Amino acid sequence: MSQKIVTRFAPSPTGYLHIGGARTALFNWLFARGHGGTFLLRIEDTDRARSTPAATAAILKGLDWLGLDYDGEVVSQFDRAPRHAEVAREMLARGAAYKCFATQEEIEAFREAARAEGRSTLFQSPWRDADPATHPDAPYAIRLKAPREGATVIADKVQGEVTVRNDQLDDMVCLRSDGTPTYMLAVVVDDHDMGVTHIIRGDDHLINAARQMQVYHAMGWEVPVFAHIPLIHGPDGKKLSKRHGAVGLEEYQAMGYPAAGMRNYLARLGWSHGDDEVFTDAQAQEWFELEGIGRAPSRLDFKKLENVCGHHMGQIADDDLIAQISGYLEAAKLPALTGTQLAALHKALPVVKSGAKTFGQLLEKARFALICRPVEIDAKAMAALDPVSRGILKELTPQLQNASWVREELESVVARVAEAHGLGLGKIAAPLRAALAGRAATPSVFDMMELLGREEVLARLSDQAA
Description:
Blueprint: E1 6-9, H1 19-34, E2 38-43, H2 53-66, E3 75-76, H3 81-94, E4 97-100, H4 104-117, E5 141-144, E6 151-156, E7 160-165, E8 173-175, H5 183-193, E9 198-202, H6 206-219, E10 225-229, E11 232-233, H7 249-254, H8 259-268, H9 281-287, E12 298-299, H10 302-313, H11 318-331, H12 339-352, H13 359-365, H14 367-370, H15 379-382, H16 387-401, H17 407-420, H18 425-437, H19 445-452, H20 454-464
Parallel strand pairs: 1-2, 2-3, 9-10, 11-12
Antiparallel strand pairs: 4-5, 5-8, 6-7
Helix pairs in contact: 1-9, 3-5, 5-6, 8-10, 16-17, 16-20
GO molecular function: ATP binding; glutamate-tRNA ligase activity; tRNA binding; zinc ion binding
Function: Catalyzes the attachment of glutamate to tRNA(Glu) in a two-step reaction: glutamate is first activated by ATP to form Glu-AMP and then transferred to the acceptor end of tRNA(Glu).
Keywords: Aminoacyl-tRNA synthetase, ATP-binding, Cytoplasm, Ligase, Nucleotide-binding, Protein biosynthesis
């Protein structure tokens, strides 16, 4: 592509960052980064009643967690209101818009009559072609003089060629009678002024594209490339909502999913590159093209998300993993790890990170390294500590006392004691797990023993020996 690619993510700060919005941001980021382009962020905060600084902060925090860096400063749509009004007045001067003096009461009366008569409720202003000499000295809105004949055709990179009959579109208000610009105008002016070349957004905006194109045409501006992506549905195929579980991006961080896994999974949610399921950011940026986006809504699949995250968990560098776990604990409002615990976790990572799909699972596997004596034992593990097992632990302890603390030797000592009692290694591993970790499911007994060290292992075994 000869043209420099510029994409944007433009959320409204009226609540949390929805996972669908996060995927939209990701697609824009991948497309821009993969083509050496620019990825911009605009906060569409024109709805002053619903926009909050807390929601803006949540959006910025969510993008930061997901690892989507944007270029330049964040643009506030509200701050640009004077520029939006200027464009509305320019369209008026060009004859591409007109002053409409119709009141809200008159518009509603028109619609009621149209409903009663079974006509279209699309308001057709009587002021569209009125002689300026007849204009009253009263507040007016500026309306776009939209074409009434023919059709507006959206050449969409995902949806294909979408045709909207112009008689289905009204003369949209660009500037209200109180002088404030409408969202529909503001979006176009901002995208034009920011140099946006590709608008990648949810397909719930598809009909907006037809109306917004008319503003581009009225101003003689080049229309960007549109790509309207299908929404994300829940596992049941219905529109994603709270009943499906987590829908806000921060909830996924609090559930312990690594950001790299989320990026990979969200990229595959509606876009594909052959049969590739698991890939790096570099691969995603290289491969991502708009043609790879499907038209059908994608379904959220938590099992698949976990599997992808499990793969990425094993690839994250240990120092980075520790930092991400600290971020997870904060997001989940769980107690932070102490310096001693962080050091112990770092040491245990090679043993515990494979097989873990979330940070919560990883910390549960690493529990043996994070806890202090006396070890709190859950009911399932306690079942393995019957009097016979406790007797075996008591017998084992002095033999371990004199063993050289290497895996082969530890395995040999435990195997000898098991054999003396006519038991398999598995039978003696269960009470060992209980004594060392307080859980029935743990990493390898010998991995735990090596990591904990002689003194700590002997002390934990003595606590549980008969």
